[in-house]
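User: I'm putting together notes for a lab meeting next week and I want to include a structural view of one of the chains we've been expressing. I don't have a solved structure, so I'd like a prediction I can at least talk through. The sequence is below, exactly as it appears in our construct file.
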Amino acid sequence: MQRLRVWNVITNTCYGGAEIMLHKLMTNLDRNEFDLKVISLLECGVTGEKIAAAGIPVKALQLVKNGRPRPAALIELSKILKGDQPHVVQTWMYHADLCGGLAARLAGRPVVWNVRHSTLDERIDKRRTRLIAKTCARLSRRIPQRIVVNSQAGRRVHQALGYAAEKLEVIPNCFDLASFQPSQQHRQDVRRELGLTTGHLLIGLAGRLHEMKGHQHFIEAAARLAAADDRVQFLLCGRDVRWDNPQLSGWIDGHNLRSRFHVLGARQDMPRIQAALDIAVSASVSGEGFSNVVGEAMACGVPCVVTDVGDSADIVADTGVVVPSWNASALAEGCRSLLTMELQQRRELGQRARERIASEYDIDSITERYASLWHEVGGLRTGQQQNHADELEAAA
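Assistant: Thanks for the context. Below is the predicted structure for the 396-residue chain, given as structure tokens.
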């Protein structure tokens, strides 16, 4: 059977939600069924290196070099697509949707866009990002065959923005429950590394330092919690989440909380980190479509407090607490409601959270949805479909 060639074009391959999802897909797909390649418009980051280590070619075009745009990279991309003749070009995020979509159109290859955003907020999102999203909306009826959106909220927002409604298809993020699972060993090891005792309660927020992630609101909520409970400690990790970041350290020191915070920077051991938490928090204020870190924490049996942004409320359902965004007081009260639970109640809530991830967002079922979409767009049958067709032909 001929393998389906799927070339994935993404803005970069650093460590973000879209990049993590791409890595999950690339490493979970059947290589006997798919021929895969990843093309980064910018550099090859840590996730790109992990994908390459799994035996999947990764190419960085360096669309921006030394701070300057390099338009020749788009011509190079079009030549690659025309020469390789992939059956499907799957793009990821606005910039790659636009650039990869145009290059695929020039090369005569079918393209599927992938939207990871929900609300576009002028207080948060750059003007250029909002402009590109609006440009994609105008082009959505002409360039992509289909448009994947990772959240119902994102679908509503982009349909209102002008994206072709008939092409939008929601495929949520997925999680590997073998990697993310409750682990008493991880819990003990991480807490020992942080100098915590069995009496401490650890509340964590994982995410890059960006206004949309709501770090300032989380820290304000932490100040309220810390004043009321000596047992509570707080963990932050993610890109640019470091003590030497003056903005972040200023927020923490402004509340005199340095002794209560563990600031870990970007981590590659998130299954360990998530399993060590008592409560996981998503404090996002805008833009979040489907939060990976919420799903990861739930898979580890950790109950979550989330702001009502994107699909977070639907993801946690009745296994956690949902609060309004932009509201540190509500965030603190949400955490307090879980902290005051009996330990067994909190554990049962975490177990239900894991069961929800297993039933709704398992990696194998979500991977199959992408595979089916690509076969449909690329025009090749799956092995099961081919075998069924062969059986019908033989019977005739």
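A couple of points you could mention at the meeting. The two ends are 21 Å apart (CA to CA). The chain is about 45% helix and 15% strand.

User: Perfect, that's what I needed.
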